[in-house]
Amino acid sequence: MTEQVPTRSRFGRDIVALTVLALVLAAAAAARLIIGERVPINAGGAIDWDLLHTYLALRRDRLIMGATVGVALGVSGTLLQALLRNPLASPYILGVSSGAALGVMTAWTGVLAALGPMATHSAALAGALITMIVVYTLGQRRGWIDPVGLLLVGVIVNAINGAAIMFLHTVVPAARRSGIFDWMMGYLADGTSSSEVVTLGVLTLTGVAIAITFGRSLDVATLSDAEAQSLGLNLRRLRLVVFILAGLLTAMSVALAGPIGFVGLIAPHLVRLMVGPRHRPVIIGSALAGAALVVGADTAVKALEMALREWGGVEIGLLPIGAVTALIGGPLFIAMLRPQLGRGRVEA
């Protein structure tokens, strides 16, 4: 009986924390549906209902896109941190996002550009997985990984990917360069088809469901290799599945919105402060927190655009969501990194 009390208390805490995150996401979603272009009213006071329906459809698609991207980044960040046993790992920091972006740019500048979204998504996945393999391989020595060293390898690979992207950007036809530059900064495009948004959304939720089923295995994987294997865990298979799943989620987010940084770092860290280290609630909470962060950032960007236009008479065009998340995540990353400096190695 005494052992059930902490379990019930912990379960109740998880429910409260996840409910709070769900409410925050709901508030961000409601704000995103409300904030946007105003529907003109004619001289007789009548509303153009067709135009209103069009505006709401655009906001709905952007809301679904933002939630999908946030869920994918939040969960992929959680999986990478579990895989590498490093709370500072994230798709952006480790260069996985830029690797997916490099794959997309390669597709856009080659013969794959004419094959449509499927080729783009496949190229994003290939770029993400190749980058993960490179970073994971170079970040270890004789089977050991230094957390800070792994981050440095990720930063360097990220810079290399960025340089390659800029090179490819110069060979893209001039008419397309402006749109590609906006995409590289991370933004949700209004022109994305509803079918593509729904398809990637369903695939993302499927990936999250798969990740949740591995929750207890990920808890065991945080132990040393010897302890995890003594408990019957097949670490090689688990790492392979988690490796591919994290790359797939990151690739889908990049294909939809470009490389948006720090969401995969912020969301898992905040959720762990609320629910503790167990991975099932962390995965669910990271999905909710990531979606709330991206949808909230998109809402803030749109509100700023509307305010500058209506109050200041300034037309600024598209603002990158990636800039908002970087302004929030950059200082937080530095605060998280400092305690890790000088620590020893961890076993790969």
Biggest sheet architecture: 3 strands, antiparallel
- Whole-Å distance between the termini? 38 Å
Unreliable spans are 1-5
Report the order of strands and helices: HHHHEEHHHHHHHHHE
Number of DSSP strand runs: 3
Shape: globular
CATH superfamily: ABC transporter involved in vitamin B12 uptake, BtuC
Average pLDDT rating: 82
The figure for the number of domains is 1
Please tell me the CATH architecture by its name: Orthogonal Bundle
Structural class: mainly alpha
CATH class: Mainly Alpha
State which percent range the strand residues make up. under 5%
Helix share bin:
over 70%
CATH topology group: ABC transporter involved in vitamin B12 uptake, BtuC
- The number of helical segments is 13
Cα gyration radius (Å) = 21 Å
Strand arrangement within the widest β-sheet reads 1-2-3
Plain-language structure description:
The longest helix has 36 residues, at 49-84. With 348 residues, the protein is mostly helical. The protein is built from 13 helices and three strands, in the order ααααββαααααααααβ. It is globular. A hairpin with a 2-residue loop joins strand 1 and strand 2. It has one domain: ABC transporter involved in vitamin B12 uptake, BtuC (Orthogonal Bundle). Residues 1-5 have low confidence and may be disordered. Strands 1-2-3 form a three-stranded antiparallel beta sheet.
